[in-house]
Design brief:
By secondary structure, the protein is α/β, with parallel strands linked by helices. It has helices at 2-21, 31-41, 54-70, 134-154, 174-185, 220-228, 237-241, 250-257, 287-304, and strands at 73-74, 81-86, 89-98, 109-115, 120-125, 128-131, 160-166, 190-196, 210-212, 233-234, 261-265. It has one domain: 3-Layer(aba) Sandwich (Aminopeptidase).
């Protein structure tokens, strides 16, 4: 019952904010709306959002209801849930669709993704065993949802956008692997995939605000910076060292499509001490930074969706 009441309250809050912003293209994502979603997903009641649990089920329900309230349509028929099995567990990605406005370009798809699951329980610290997963990855989920809200309201994307929230990332990228294979089988005309992972804390010693994994594989970073007019995205040596390109949900799409499929993150584990830790909680995140990063990223995605030709490309080996 407590799950249901908290879900209804949060839906009411988001509905009011959505209706207030829907008509204005200049409306920006606020730190409070980002925090509201992170706080719901990372609450103790969600029990760490492990795949196959009631905590991830109610999280998916919130995400579905939010997509519906924004005007984001289900990608697969009448349901947002992309169902599959993880052994005996029922698992589901949540997938929405925002059709492009240009007849010539709308067959091309930009996929925006983040995983909304976490590990459930962690090593007990001071009696706390719930690995809340605020930065990992309620933060990235909040970014994808905010961006989806923007494009559903403004209808400014000429290319179509798939919005995907993945489960079972923590079990080995199983949700994104399932969806990537399904979209490849359906011969989806993918342009690029941009994944959001752990964007909840800023760097203190960099000349950029976030990095992309697989920086050296494509011109993604250069194009984003060109589109926004400043150095928003940079290169992380730590991300390269630990092969973070292969450790998040961009990677199965790269494997299937051999296209620029990369992750935006502001955390390469040098600036966050609570990876898979029970203290990855909502009070550790910088919501002003998150909102600013999302607001700065939206124009880049908008430009990606509107260029006459595919400008983001893999480098030749």
């Amino acid at each position: 019952m407590r799950h249901i009441l908290s879900l209804l309250v949060l839906l009411l809050v988001f509905s009011c904010k959505s209706s207030g912003n829907k008509e204005s293209k200049t409306s920006e994502v606020t730190s409070s709306e980002v925090k509201d979603l992170v706080a719901y997903l990372a609450a103790d009641d969600r029990m760490g959002r492990n795949t196959g649990t009631s905590g991830i089920d109610v999280s998916a329900t919130l995400i579905e209801n939010q997509m519906k309230s924004y005007g984001v349509k289900p990608y697969f028929g009448d349901s947002y849930r992309d169902q599959f099995k993880v052994k005996e567990l029922d698992a589901f990605n949540v997938v929405g669709f925002i059709e492009g406005s240009d007849e010539a370009l709308k067959d091309e798809v930009i996929l925006l993704g983040a995983h909304y699951d976490h590990i459930g329980k962690g090593k007990v610290v001071d009696g706390d065993s719930i690995a809340n997963g605020a930065n990992d990855n309620a933060a990235g989920t909040s970014a994808v949802m905010a961006i989806a809200k923007y494009f559903a309201a403004n209808k400014s994307n000429k290319r179509s956008i798939i919005v995907a929230l993945f489960t079972a990332e923590e079990m080995g990228l199983l949700g994104s692997k399932h969806l990537a294979e399904r979209l490849k089988q359906d011969d989806v005309n993918l342009y690029t995939m941009l994944n959001f992972e752990m964007i909840g804390v800023p760097f203190k010693d960099r000349d950029y605000e976030a990095f992309v994994t697989g920086y050296e594989l494509s011109n993604m970073a250069d194009k984003i910076n060109e589109y926004v007019g400043n150095k928003l995205i940079g290169y992380s040596e730590v991300a390269k060292k630990y092969s973070l390109f292969k450790r998040s949900d961009n990677y199965p799409f790269y494997q299937q499509f051999n296209l620029p499929c990369q992750t935006i993150s502001s955390c390469d584990l040098t600036n966050f001490d609570f990876y898979h830790h029970v203290d990855d909680e909502i009070d550790k995140l910088d919501y002003e930074f998150m909102a600013n990063l999302i607001n700065k990223t939206i124009p880049a995605i908008e430009k990606m969706s509107r260029t006459a030709t595919r400008e983001i490309k893999m480098y030749e080996e």
